[in-house]
Specification:
By secondary structure, the protein is an all-alpha fold. The protein has four helices and no strands. It has a single domain, classed as ACP-like (Non-ribosomal Peptide Synthetase Peptidyl Carrier Protein, Chain A, Orthogonal Bundle), CATH 1.10.1200. The chain is about 55% helix and about 0% strand. The longest helix is centred in the middle third of the chain and has 15 residues. The radius of gyration is 11 Å and the shape is globular.
């Protein structure tokens, strides 16, 4: 799951520094915005089969790779 989430963020954000720090706050690094959140959610549904609405997550759930992986593992 973690590798898939990393891949999704790398593809959507077009940034490979995410892999180097899985606790990088993507909002503070100005890599993640509202449009990118939607793109990430679409990719999660396509690649992992987990359907999510933006309202299902708190901002903190999407802030880092590790936070999103933890959130998704609890949703399975």
């Amino acid at each position: 799951m973690q590798e898939t989430v990393i891949s999704i963020f790398e593809d959507v954000l077009e940034c490979d520094e995410i892999r180097d720090n899985l606790d990088l706050n993507l909002f503070e690094a100005e890599l993640l915005d509202s449009l990118a959140i939607i793109e990430v959610l679409v990719e999660i549904e396509d690649r992992l089969g987990i359907a999510l609405q933006p309202t299902d997550l708190e901002r903190s759930d999407m802030a880092t790779v590790n936070n999103l992986v933890k959130f998704l593992e609890n949703r399975k």
